[in-house]
Design a protein that fits this description.
single chain, 138 residues, mainly beta, Metal Binding Protein, Guanine Nucleotide Exchange Factor, Chain A, eight-stranded mixed beta sheet, three-stranded antiparallel beta sheet, 1 helix, 11 strands, Mss4-like_sf, metal-binding, zinc
Length: 138
């Protein structure tokens, strides 16, 4: 069972299933949401996901079709997970790998998506599939 939390520890979560996949996203919205060069999304079945605490939520249009709901801590602002009802995302929670702490070492990426938006100084990962759009081929 994997466990994660926000920085202050007021919102905690766990999932009791193997992740479906892990994908790095280079889209501009994911970069803004995380405040980093990309987001690392560990996709887990919603049926295996539980949380404690009271996360705040914000919805945004990805600009690529799906509308995402982001859950984050209202106290420390840590981004924790994303959800969407769009095809390909239904029934999953996209856990932000950084919120897993050291456990994120266990979930290396299988793909990088929206690669045209990758920062020029950031190289692609070797032996990881590359996609100009979404990861529908994974």
């Amino acid at each position: 069972m994997a466990k994660g939390s926000c920085l202050c520890g007021r919102v905690k979560y766990e999932f009791a299933a193997e992740p479906i996949k892990t994908v790095i996203c280079h889209c501009l919205n994911c970069r803004r949401v995380t405040g980093t060069a990309y987001s690392t999304n560990v996709s887990v079945p919603s049926s295996a996901f539980k949380f404690q605490g009271k996360p705040r939520q914000f919805s945004f249009d990805s600009g690529q079709g799906p509308i995402f709901k982001i859950s984050f801590c209202g106290d420390c602002s840590s981004t924790l997970w994303k959800e969407s009802d769009a095809e390909g995302f239904k029934g999953t929670h996209l856990v932000q790998a950084g919120s897993l702490g050291q456990e994120s070492d266990n979930y290396g990426p299988q793909g990088e998506i929206f690669t045209p938006f990758r920062l020029k100084w950031l190289p692609s990962l070797e032996n990881v599939r590359q996609f100009e759009g979404t990861d529908s081929g994974l």
